[in-house]
Amino acid sequence: MNLLEARDLEKRYGGVHAVVGVSFSVAAGERVALIGPNGAGKSTCFNLIGGQVRPDAGSVVLDGKAVTGMKPRALFRRGVARTFQITATFASMSVVENVQAAIASHLGESFRPAGSATLAHRDAAMALLARVGLDAQSDRHCAQLAYGDSKRLELAMALANAPRLLLMDEPTAGMAPGERHALMDLVTRLTASDGVSVLFTEHDMDIVFAHADRLLVLDRGRLIAQGAPSSVRADPEVQRIYLGGHA
Ligand SMILES: Nc1ncnc2c1ncn2[C@@H]1O[C@H](COP(=O)(O)OP(=O)(O)OP(=O)(O)O)[C@@H](O)[C@H]1O
Ligand SMILES: [Mg+2]
Known about the structure:
- This protein has 247 residues and is α/β, with parallel strands linked by helices.
- It has 2 domains: 1-79 and 165-247, 3-Layer(aba) Sandwich (Rossmann fold); 89-162, no CATH class.
- Helix content is 35%, strand content 25%.
- Helix 4 packs across helix 5 (147-159).
- 41% of the residues are buried.
- The protein binds adenosine-5'-triphosphate and magnesium ion (MG).
- Adenosine-5'-triphosphate (ATP) is lined by residues 13, 16, 18, 36, 38-44, 85.
């Protein structure tokens, strides 16, 4: 059975039809890349699936159950985690406190870094930081992290929930090419071992082809192609609209 099914999703912003009748599925353990030009509707699709935005029509089905319109927190409890195109961490807290807060949030607890909760979940948070290679930086403030390290922290926070589906909107945006491959290698390693499904957006086609089992191509809100990387790469319409000189 598919872990995720998006069915006939629709979203309009005023006169902009951002997502037009989009349907696709993601199987358990599958890594799927959602690609397309700027403004194609990729982030909007992530927001519809992650609960940040409610679709005007259509449904989101997780594990056979409709979760359409559920809030991000409710989806998080059902195993949907995400990272954002713009990194979302608490700059005023330390690295380890951010992960502790993510764990507390998963458990429905509140977390106040200055309060008695400071020690709560610290071991679990340190173990997650070790998995993403950030344990040596656990006491630094997030604002002091190098950009690539803040992306790894966001990944650790997403994994705090032991997710079944990880949504990553441009996880490597703004990174140097070498760093991009390192981050996606890490994502693949950490998710493949637990059979976590990954839906990600990425503009770097080398990374897409190296890390996706399957591609979905959006253009002006519509899904214009999907399938194995090799067949999507050879699709004339995809070539014309998006890939240009990449294939
Ligand atoms: N909150 C919003 N209010 C108004 N218009 C929006 C909003 N969010 C997205 N849009 C519009 O919807 C369309 C799709 O935007 P979206 O951010 O989903 O594209 P994208 O594929 O993620 O693009 P990019 O590659 O630049 O990140 C665009 O025309 C955008 O301007
Ligand atoms: Mg986007």
